[in-house]
Amino acid sequence: MRLKLQRLHSAPPWKAFAARVLSVLLALAVTALMMAMAGIDPIDLAAQVLSATFGSSFGLEDLGLLFSPLLFTGLAVAVGLRIGAWNIGAEGQFNIGALCAAGIALFVPGPDWALLPAMIAAGALGGALWILVPTLARAYADVSELITTLLLNFVALLLVYYVATGPWLDPSGRALATTARLPVRLPEVWGIVHWGLPIALGLAVVLAVIFSVTRWGYEVRMAGSNAGSARYAGMPVRRHLIAVMLLSGALAGLGGVMEVAGTVGRLQGGISNNYGYLGIMVAVLARAAPLGVIASAFLMAVILNGGIVMQTQGLTTNTVLAMTGLILLFAAIGDELAHYRLRRLEGRN
Amino acid sequence: MTDIRQRLGLDAGAPPLVALHGIDKVFPGVIANKNVSLEVFPGEIHALLGENGAGKSTLMNVLTGIYQPEAGEIHVGGYARVFTAPQDAIAAGIGMVHQHFKLVKAFTVAENVHLGWADTPARIHRSVLEQRTADLSHKLGLAVDPGATVDDLSTGEQQRVEILRVLSRDAKVLILDEPTAVLTPAEAQELFVALRAFVARGNAVIFISHKLDEVLEIADRITILRQGRKVATEWAEACTERSLAQKMVGREIVLSDMRTRTEGVAGPGAPVLTLDGVTLKGRLTDVSLQLRAGEILGVAGVAGNGQRELCQVLTGLATPDKGRVLLDGDDIAPLGPRKVAALGVGHIPEDRLGSGLAPALSVTDNTVLREYRQPPVSRGPWYMPRAARALAEKIAAIAEVMVPDFAMPVRNLSGGNQQRLVARREMRIASRVLVAAYPSRGLDVGAINTMMRYFTELRDQGVAVVLVSEELEELLNLSDRIAVMFHGQIMGVVEGEQADIDEIGLMMGGQRGPQAEVAA
Is A58 on the interface with B (CB under 8 A)? Predict the structure, then answer.
């Protein structure tokens, strides 16, 4: 008897899921090994991270603040993937969303109940506008959105730095590199966790419903899987591509709104905190499923929160980046391996 | 078969050029090859015959090192060899020309010949490469233009480049996978001459095909595979088309006239769809055709002569630059594919996996593609997964396709089953016209027969069927009329009953037929 590897045409869902879980565990194991080699007790550290995160309501509230933006950017990237578009620019759209919301809050007079919806609308619109050019380039000239969305991130990031340290700098002189505190804040729901989190969770559910039980969702699924067959059936492939990519930008922009109006309270450079890039990881881990994004964004939030604890132990934040990189690497390997199965062969000789 | 060496003028103990002994190859859930043995001697053209899925390509992929067999041995020149990669097989003198050419279209002939070849000079210069190619071309007796860009060549010429590329690596055994599928009859004859010259130099050819007539014409010996097993190896002159077909499918097939209507069914009726001087820039020139209810119109021609565009115009996928497309008297040219389909025009597209189906999506998603907009699958803006599933099950049942799991990607179904699903899906909406492009491509005899039965069924219901095919036999069996296309034009339309293969062949090569002037 001998063992043999067989490649299957498609990975069964339970195997794909198991591969995801295993990839996370493996990444944690490798990180632990590296820690141990650097002379840090990984078990002790893990215990600290877990207790700091889950052991107190402060920890859980911090977790919620990280969870929310990751949900928005994760959903943004996942929605794009639904139609085969890689929105690498969630980082930039997030920044622009924050910029637009802050602009409304700082310079438009009005009551809170009117300003908040206006900020949300402006942020979503800003995010959508930020991806408009890459979207049109992809839809009409077949220019890869990967590069164009990525490059616009740097423009957006620098624009926010410039605005926050230049024309919109806090006139009171108390803050060095941010705008003044926004007069309008997103109300909290629990401790310091603001409405951004429930809104994001609600959006994930709504998107899941849209993609599974609407005709539009079916058409987007078809267009994303094979534009040829969608065109053959007479679906407006280009229109769907544009709509989905703009929706993706708007979601990332919304993330920025919640961050500036809920968590930070001011517009400052680097407000996006890499959430846009981490959103790519979240979406890929979730296999672009909106409900899956909830799970993977939560996991990513735990890891990020762990990073903060690690910093108190004298480890750099880069540890977290390395860890997320490892997870993605193992997830990619796991995706491939999920196609294989071990089979016993009855040996003839 | 003991006289093979004697007949080929070889020594009594001469080893075969290549031999396969007891090859087993298993894929998940499928036995692709089971205990297959094959000997190919210098000087012979050995045909490998079998239905689609009989294991021909798998066996050759084993021989060329693409697959490793689970059991069995490969012998080259009498010595056992193990090929772990295609390069090993090439080094051992075994080369293969695949059905889909592996040429870089933007490169010249000389560049393609030298691509990925250890003998290519380190410092390349255009004139050097072209000179080397010209020498090779001369030495091997395969006329090519070294400086031409591959994209500009005809399919036949491209195939010659592929063969030159393989032979330039000192191949002693040339494997050709369905080489004539893309050729005109004249080009096929040219190919046969080149192959005979090649084996006359002490080499061998393995010729994969499922076309009985050409196998009988070209091969010295024929090995028939069925369901992964070898059925027999025979001398070609001891075989007839009938005996080969019987061995291939394990039962006797009858080439029959399917034009005859069952009693009570009317013949072709009133015109349904009319093309009037349709021109599509650079693709179709002044095409006029008339389709009548209850007839099958065959469209013959070498692939790439405007058939694809004709189908696109008929189904609303392309809007002609000039001319009109009339369905029951109304111009449908500007409507687009969705509205045209809604008016009762079904379309079995030529590239099943490129446009007929989304391979990665579920069987359900794919099966409801034509009816997802209407109840019960859609209610207002809502898509009802359960109703979609029910409809998919219904269509699969009519198509006689066993689907183990409707949520699995449709690409997991066999090609024949995919095609049946597409065909049944389209037949449901084809109340006026069905456009079927190469519906039997890549299918085995059984599946082809099913497909043809579908078309006669529709015809008898009074639907106009357009059958685009490169299989003349199929067209002759089925069509009431046959239109022949060349360079985007209709060369002529002949009555199916009186159709003469030679005449159609001439029109396929660009000669105008007697009825070429017949407009709608």
Answer: no
In whole angstroms, give the CA distance from residue A322 to residue B3: 70
Of B317, B384, B409, which is closest to A232 when you measure between CB atoms?
B317
> Which domain range does residue B343 map to?
271-508
* CATH number reported for the structural domain that contains residue B431 in this entry: 3.40.50.300
Q: Which of B183, B214, B249 is the last residue of a domain?
A: B249
Label residue A202 exposed, middle or buried (CB < 10 Å: 0-12, 13-18, 19+).
Answer: exposed
Task: Give the CA-trace dihedral at A261, A262, A268, A274, to 10 degrees.
Answer: -120
Question: Over the stretch B131-148, which tens digit does the pLDDT of each residue have?
Answer: 989 988 888 878 888 888
CB contact under 8 A, A226 and B360: yes
The interface predicted TM-score (ipTM) is 0.83
**B382-383 and B481-486 beta bridge pairing:** unpaired
B409 and A10 within 8 Å at the Cβ level: the answer is yes
Residue B262 lies in a domain: no
Inter-chain contact B408–A10, Cβ cutoff 8 Å?
A: yes
- Residues B169, B294, single domain; the answer is no
Question: For chain A, how many residues are written?
Answer: 349
End-to-end C-alpha distance for chain A, whole angstroms: 9
B307/B240 same-domain check: no
Helix (H, G, I), strand (E, B) or coil at B39: strand
pLDDT in tens, A56-83: 888 899 999 999 999 999 999 999 999 9
Is there a single domain that holds both residue B228 and residue B335?
Answer: no
Q: Which long-range contacts (CB under 8 A, 24 or more apart) does A301-307 make?
A: A301/A63, A301/A66, A301/A67, A301/A70, A302/A53, A302/A63, A304/A66, A304/A70, A304/A278, A305/A49, A305/A52, A305/A53, A305/A59, A305/A62, A305/A63, A305/A66, A306/A49, A306/A53
Query: Is B265 a domain residue?
Result: no
Q: State yes or no: pLDDT of A186 exceeds 70.
A: yes
